[in-house]
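In this notebook, the sequence line spells out the residues, with the fold written below as integer tokens. This is how one looks.
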Amino acid sequence: MKIIRASIFDQFSEVVFGFSPMNALERKEPFYFNLSLTVGDDEAIVRENREAFFNELGLTTTQIAFQMQIHSDIITRVEKAGMVGESDALITTEKGIGLAISAADCTPIFIYDSAKKIICGVHSGWRGTEKQIVLKTLKKLETEFNSKMDDIFVYVGPSISQKFYEVGPDVAEKFESIYLAEIKGKLYLDVLSANVDLIEEYGVPINQIEISPYCSYQEKNILHSFRRDGKNSGRHLGVISLKGS
């Protein structure tokens, strides 16, 4: 299985990370290698897919923390695996627990405090971006865990690029003009840049931020995209974990 990796985390032997591909195990259309139980795919197949992916990371399903993503700015501190409720960001200091972020166009962001040994996973669509969930996650690390931004390393995973992300005026008005492009009377939003700017402006060094080059909409053979495939779109999981002692 060719998992999407983050080179920024390769320097840390204690960090496990992977982002699931769409094209694994020769799964067929419409959902391909899908890791969501809520899109209409066969539940048994999804659970097989999940276990195969987690095993590639040296984990099992019983070690994964899941959240019900609701496009909020809710941040959950995770102390054990399993379903942790409704939120869109997860934080843990616990070893051997994988934090799972589901995505199929929204921006998935993974954070590691290399000094305090803390990991985070963030789901940021346009609603989460408007609510600045990634900024609030960094602030929580700073205020509650005494994290220093110089110790923070970030991977911004595959997401939809601006040229494919058309929005209406009601959404566009919530963002600064620098994140909007008007082409032939249509408005397009750059959610990726909005999130990266929040991370950089809060003080995370630029050379400690890795941005995936993949556009979920454009990479039809690698990535799921809800904007592209609608109800037939599967979902990815990105998982970050600290190795157990």
User: Anything to note?
Assistant: The chain has six helices and 14 strands. The mean pLDDT is 97. Residues 149 and 204 are 5 Å apart (CA to CA). The helical segments are 43-56, 126-130, 133-145, 169-172, 191-201, 226-229.
